[in-house]
Specification:
This protein is α+β, with helices and mostly antiparallel strands. It has 2 helices and 8 strands. Strands 1, 4, 5, 6, 7 and 8 form a 6-stranded mixed beta sheet that branches. A two-stranded antiparallel sheet has the order 2-3. The structure holds the ligand Nc1nc2c(c(=O)[nH]1)N=C([C@H](O)[C@H](O)COP(=O)(O)OP(=O)(O)OP(=O)(O)O)CN2 and zinc ion. Its cofactor is Zn(2+). InterPro entries: 6-PTP_synth/QueD, 6-PTP_synth/QueD_sf.
């Protein structure tokens, strides 16, 4: 049986695009994960790799980022979170990274995929409490999965 419950714990709060915290009804038996994929192009170099390592040189990647949001399906809307709201929440963060030199961003002086994933998590998690996992691909064949601290 599907039970309707009023969410009253912080994990089920939604911060909408206007920064308002909403308390919502949800279908308590229907837990799911939604995801949204983004790409951004950025330049970087890795200052701590050994002399002669190719990644010491300035170069660029088209990064592929996927955000996974866990939650229960809202009774009225029939979704966990509007994909449009998800995109709007992530857009300023993607905007900071797109066509940037990552090394020049505070906290990204050594922009490995691992440290970039942590940085992205710390930017987005406060805005999206349901954030469960991120995947960040630096090349078609390599990347990281981060599930938070
Ligand atoms: N664990 C990590 N290893 C490497 C990272 C990283 O962030 N975390 N980063 C790099 C470099 O950024 C490099 O640009 C990517 O390296 P690589 O996979 O070797 O890229 P290529 O596409 O050039 O690979 P080829 O197989 O040589 O074409 C390195 N390592
Ligand atoms: Zn690189």
């Amino acid at each position: 049986m599907i039970k309707v419950t009023i969410a009253n714990d912080p994990g089920h709060m939604i911060i909408n695009k206007f920064g308002l915290t909403l308390q919502r009804y949800y279908l308590s038996n229907l837990f799911m994960i939604i995801y949204q994929h983004f790409t951004f192009d950025a330049a970087h170099f890795l200052p701590h790799v050994p002399e002669g390592h190719k990644c010491r040189n300035l170069h660029g990647h088209t990064y592929h980022l996927t955000l996974y949001i866990a939650g229960e399906i809202l009774e009225r809307e029939g979704w966990i979170l509007d994909f449009s709201d998800l995109k709007a929440i992530a857009a300023p963060v993607i905007g900071m990274l797109d066509h940037a030199l990552l090394n020049s961003i505070e906290g990204l002086e050594n922009p490995t995929a691992e440290l970039l994933a942590i940085w992205i998590w710390r930017q987005i998690k406060p805005l999206l409490p349901g954030l469960r996992k991120i995947e960040l691909k630096e090349t078609p064949a390599s990347g990281v999965i981060y599930e938070g601290e």
